[in-house]
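Ticket reopened. Same input as before:
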Amino acid sequence: MIEVADATDIAVVMRFAAGHDHGVAVQLIGHGALEHTRPTLLVQTRFLDEVEIRDHTAWGGSGVRWETVLAAAAPLGLMPLAGSAPRVGVVGYLTGGGLSPIGRGYGFASDLVTAIDVVTGDGTILRATPSENTDLFWGLRGGKGALGIVSAVEFTLVDLPEFFGGCLYFSAADVADVTHR
Ligand SMILES: Cc1cc2nc3c(=O)[nH]c(=O)nc-3n(C[C@H](O)[C@H](O)[C@H](O)COP(=O)(O)OP(=O)(O)OC[C@H]3O[C@@H](n4cnc5c(N)ncnc54)[C@H](O)[C@@H]3O)c2cc1C
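Engineering reply: fixed in the latest deploy. New output:
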């Protein structure tokens, strides 16, 4: 496992792997299953943990979890289209599309992504946006780690000054009663 500090580190790993016929995988937390048939370098992104919010735009490194973005955005009356688990990684979620509990009203979280900094398999550092490297931008918003390793992502926050939600849990012994009511 290689812990990286920035996109340049990721590029070094990519070039080394390409030159030695090794695979490369990426992980922040480990919610994605990894199975490899050849020697593979595992890139760990936890040190890329900076978040910035300007106006309605958030920028975060690929080591950021949703809980960090939520804590920074909520005092401003803003919310990212995060999923149900605050400890999930922002980039792992967004590169999978990202369906938020409030997604019925706002759509998929990856549709609010405005820029992605990515390192491709040959070690090239690129920015993908709706007007720059557009195919890559399209593919990264659903392609997980297949097209490269993301070092940072920029996305729009929505206005949500108030949120009311929660869950009710019942004992299995009460299922008939609860269902009836
Ligand atoms: C408790 C829980 C609740 C969840 N709720 C929701 C939900 O409400 N909505 C929803 O849409 N999803 C939900 N998910 C799914 C979650 O979005 C995925 O499991 C996501 O992949 C988690 O990413 P991670 O960083 O936490 O895991 P990791 O294992 O670190 O990453 C998972 C995969 O994401 C990709 N990836 C991670 N980092 C990078 C990177 N830097 N560059 C490129 N690819 C990368 C890789 O393919 C990697 O294998 C939930 C998951 C859990 C465990």
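The first helix runs from residue 7 to 19. The CA atoms of residues 56 and 68 lie 16 Å apart. Please confirm and we'll close it.
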